[in-house]
Specification:
- The protein has 431 residues and is an alpha/beta fold.
- It has two domains: 240 residues, Aldehyde Dehydrogenase, Chain A, domain 1, CATH 3.40.605; 145 residues, Aldehyde Dehydrogenase, Chain A, domain 2, CATH 3.40.309.10.
- It is 42% helix and 19% strand.
- The chain is built from 14 helices and 16 strands.
- Strands 10-9-11-8-7-12-13 form a seven-stranded parallel beta sheet.
- Helix 2 crosses helix 7.
- It is globular and about 75 Å long.
């Protein structure tokens, strides 16, 4: 393995493509593992993370030191930081995946044709999955173990800021798993941070069946523009809550406050609050008080400004299209459910949007017409999450429409295969 510096494009190409060939071989072997074998491997991986905790934390300390020298913000350093408690949480997460139901082998459909041919539609692994991500080293473990549980080999490419942590975690997972039968090269991490490696991954459709970018919009757009294989995207989380004229306003305040402030730095946090004009004068002063107590900066349309006065800054068009991931909230008054839906479909990111209302007809219209992966009625957007949906761990929230949409868990990391059995049937029998 090379260190982080000074590889030429030819060397990067050779290393990444060698990893692709190895991953393809591993994927064929992984397809033969049954659920109990995979669970034994996963528990061994968790154990190895604990055994190698000193090495992993030392690698993380090196990343933190370099990150401080390179000017990473306090928030970025906190996302990067591992300690004994956080590492134990990572190991515990691996054990939780071992407890989840294995989707591979599930019979999705089964039928017998009049000619006696028996057809089964069976859930199978995708094969080799490439995952490109930034910042948090726990993603290395999350992505690797979810791919393993669903029978896939994986090639990981993390960000440069966590390169030493990612290497140590990936090595522990592979080494621990191999002690209990994990095929070699099932989990591979690209060991250098050159941007050229992203281009090489995106080009090797012979070996990668799917690529999943997790990170900022720029990363995702780069991968989409380069990829020669399917990409599952996790775009911005520009999430909305709409307070309908028939809303329980106390419920609306609780949901808006929770959706915005429970954890503002995540993709399912509220970014734009829409309020029906019939309740705006009563609702806005109360919710503004709630939000101001949590130090949320409000940016409003002219009607919001007229009601709240100097308590709110003027919103511009850019605010409706911004994922703040911070204590900032755009607020707009609308005149109907239709107006709210139009705004969301124009400015949203097809992630998660909510209506608060006691009018079932309005709720159903909103759920039917908003074109997002997750649409909620009287529920905080913070529940847009694989674990909250009962799926267990997730690899992200897909804003795509094909193959996977919404929280991506084990089932979404599989495909299906038709298995057809007969007794010598032919299409055109000889006379």
């Amino acid at each position: 393995m090379n260190e982080t510096a000074s590889l030429n494009p030819e060397e990067i190409h050779e290393e990444v493509y060698a990893m692709g060939r190895q991953a393809r071989t591993a994927a064929h072997a992984l397809a033969n593992l049954h659920a109990d074998q995979k669970n034994v491997i996963l528990r061994a991986m968790a154990g190895e993370l604990r055994v190698q905790s000193r090495q992993i934390l030392a690698a993380n300390a090196r990343d933190l030191e370099e990150g401080g020298k390179n000017g990473l913000t306090g928030a970025m350093l906190d996302r990067l930081r591992l300690d004994e408690s956080r590492l134990e949480s990572v190991a515990g997460g691996v054990e939780q995946v071992a407890e989840l139901s294995d989707p591979v082998g599930e019979i999705l459909d089964e039928r017998e044709r009049p000619n006696g041919i028996r057809i089964q539609q069976i859930r199978v692994p995708i094969g080799v999955i490439g995952i490109i991500y930034e910042s948090r080293p726990n993603v290395t473990s999350d992505a690797a173990v979810l791919c393993l549980k669903s029978g896939n080999a994986t090639i990981l490419r993390g960000g440069s800021e966590a390169i030493h942590s990612n290497r140590a975690i990936a090595a522990a997972l592979q080494e621990g798993g191999e002690k209990k039968g994990l095929p070699p090269h099932s989990i591979q991490l690209i060991p250098f941070a050159d941007r050229e490696s992203v281009k090489e991954m995106a080009s090797m459709d012979r070996y990668l069946d799917l690529i999943i970018p997790r990170g900022g919009k720029g990363l995702i757009e780069t991968v989409v523009s380069l990829a020669r294989m399917p990409v599952i995207k996790h775009y911005d989380g520009i999430c909305h809550v709409f307070i309908d004229e028939a809303a329980d306003l106390k419920m609306g305040r609780r949901i808006a406050l929770d959706a915005k402030t429970q954890k503002p730095s995540v993709c399912n946090a509220l970014e734009t609050l829409l309020v029906h004009e019939a309740v705006a004068e009563k609702f806005l002063p109360a919710v503004a008080e709630d939000l101001e107590a949590r130090k949320v900066e409000l940016r409003g349309c002219p009607q919001v400004q007229a009601i709240l006065g100097g308590r709110v800054a003027a919103a511009d068009e850019e605010d409706w299209d911004t994922e703040y991931l911070d204590y900032i909230l755009a607020v707009k008054v609308v005149d109907s459910v239709a107006d709210a839906v139009t705004h969301i479909n124009r400015h949203g990111s097809q992630h998660t949007d909510c209506i608060v209302t006691s009018d079932e007809e309005n709720a159903e219209r909103f759920l039917r017409e908003v074109d997002s992966a997750c649409v909620f009625h009287n529920v905080s957007t913070r529940f847009s999450d694989g674990e909250e949906f009962g799926f267990g761990a997730e690899i992200g929230i897909s804003t795509d429409k094909l193959h996977a949409r919404g929280p991506m868990a084990l089932r979404e990391l599989t495909s299906y295969q038709y298995r057809v059995r007969g007794a010598g049937q032919v299409k055109d029998p000889l006379p």
